[in-house]
Structure prediction request, 792 residues.
Amino acid sequence: VNPDPIITFTTDFGLGSPYVAAMKGVILAVNPRARLLDLSHEIPPQDVRHAAFFLRSCIPFFPVGAIHVIVVDPGVGTDRALLYVEVAGRRLLAPDNGCWTELARGASRPPRVTCLSESRYWRNPVSPTFHGRDILAPVAAHLSLGEDPQKLGPIVQEWVRLDLPSPTLEAGRLIGEVIYVDHFGNLITNIPRAAYATLAAGPVRIMVGNQEVSWRVQTYGEAPPGALVALISSAELLEIAITGGNAAQRLAARVGTLVSIDKT
Amino acid sequence: VNPDPIITFTTDFGLGSPYVAAMKGVILAVNPRARLLDLSHEIPPQDVRHAAFFLRSCIPFFPVGAIHVIVVDPGVGTDRALLYVEVAGRRLLAPDNGCWTELARGASRPPRVTCLSESRYWRNPVSPTFHGRDILAPVAAHLSLGEDPQKLGPIVQEWVRLDLPSPTLEAGRLIGEVIYVDHFGNLITNIPRAAYATLAAGPVRIMVGNQEVSWRVQTYGEAPPGALVALISSAELLEIAITGGNAAQRLAARVGTLVSIDKT
Amino acid sequence: VNPDPIITFTTDFGLGSPYVAAMKGVILAVNPRARLLDLSHEIPPQDVRHAAFFLRSCIPFFPVGAIHVIVVDPGVGTDRALLYVEVAGRRLLAPDNGCWTELARGASRPPRVTCLSESRYWRNPVSPTFHGRDILAPVAAHLSLGEDPQKLGPIVQEWVRLDLPSPTLEAGRLIGEVIYVDHFGNLITNIPRAAYATLAAGPVRIMVGNQEVSWRVQTYGEAPPGALVALISSAELLEIAITGGNAAQRLAARVGTLVSIDKT
Prediction:
């Protein structure tokens, strides 16, 4: 017997929200066997860029076949499309705002993108302010029952792309930025392991804003408590942290703060 | 094969609480097949009115058969009763404080209410401060195993009712109030679609406190960013929002803030 | 048919964390039938003592067989061990920091502790900053598939112990301390029911800091709103609360605040 299908949720609704609970109810009413899994409901309100980093950091670990519902949707009720996407073996339902396009980077095949248009899979009537409940949730449930994605609407070739910012290299100086601050205050940058490793093979100066990073380590425990350290994060990106402390607070750093690496 | 039974949780324990985790353990110890689902643990402490709005907003979407455990219980350990309720096809376990009675509104049949008295379904001993763990959780687990609700205790005809406040209509002026503020700061009022639609067929003035609402829209995206808009929420109630912003903060509005509609 | 295996999570990652979501994905990729259950992701960052109280308060309620993954790991990437523990019939995977040792108190058998060393059950490569995702999660998944724990690594006889502080008794005066503050602001102390009951059989004075507790009750509802009360918590420990209020805020009390009981 196959395991029951998995449907995950990533939203900006907040954890106490009846909106999340309503989506769970809608799915179970269509497919009582669906196994529901919260990924996050704490995406900052309408922060598509944050959602993009979040999805890039966790979706690749899931088994092929899970259905991921993403509701971070500043354009709800406008003519922005809702999409069903197959990308790098993963299946997502999301508004067409680019939150998923980082997942396509490096994939062996282009994504297959369907624009949801077949309203027979939707709740009726559809609230103009809650497409998560009335369109994405029931479509996810029907997919989890084995419905053919081709029936959901037409394949499309155009969609909104959101590229996380790339670091720049000028005259031996690499300039990146913080793209995510985790719960511990660790600063995750957009500088990939390879770019860092190439430069940091020799002596370098690493700056976060106007603060110099004094330690280069493999893991937090290698430096004394309170040290400002640079290391490769579990997301394979350069991370700046304070051992046993909160780097975002101490450096007043946040998403967008510049991080530079100079050869010395 | 039937799907395994679903038991949901709605509490005011907060998400980091060992109390929630203990209830999950108790249920699984009785019925290892139960499928557990968090609805919210962020009901404000002991706020039965908030719980009532929350339940009204999500329970109707669930399939018949799911068992919903609600632990918002300012009266724990006093002689307030604990109830098993069948209402509008839904099954709930909750303290007798009215948190569920909005679900009975418009139901085709009266609710069937059982007062939990049969202690053989409870943990022993029962902590006087945690009936959620020691009474509601094991009773939910036994129900999920197919136990006959009639064995839990006697049917009762009296219970605490909690009616969410109703708007009033005087001389063409409709006066309602905010009954819920969501995570985005949107203000959900107690004015139903029909009452709003009747008045708002013509020109009206909508006030939130002493602030006039300038836009009437179907969805947020119809007005420019920062506009104060009135629309019908996904809960079929009048909602006041700021497009791309937080209305509760900008208007200093909260539960109880008056909202009026005047013909002009 | 046996129910599908349960794997629970207790972490300090915070609820919006992609780290939690990644662990869920890793487990499901190894065992698509695993039933995942969040206990808490709100353990204060790197607060092993808090985790110890949390686990003591909920793990004993779970059925034998559930696998509990704990990731509160200030020593990640150092040479601290990662353990698989069978204690009092429960199964845990955790860093060797003592977070689980309170569960051994009063158990009929000594714990059976395995040091995880067999890297063929791990993800490859292992990130030095995220052993939760790359070691604990896949090991949990393999255990849930029925893998023999003996294959994970050698049995060890030494591990870090963390004893929650014990109250002291001098000249008829019992001095304990607050070890947990719950979501309602209730203060849970380290004074067990028996020690309290012995002293409190006669007239006593109970002090929290320099504030006298005026009521001794069985449950909150016995005292008028706003009363400062002493009672036995659902964890079988002395608890100080304010009925309908927040004792931690009103008394400026927190973990470590002294609580004394004097015969009078």
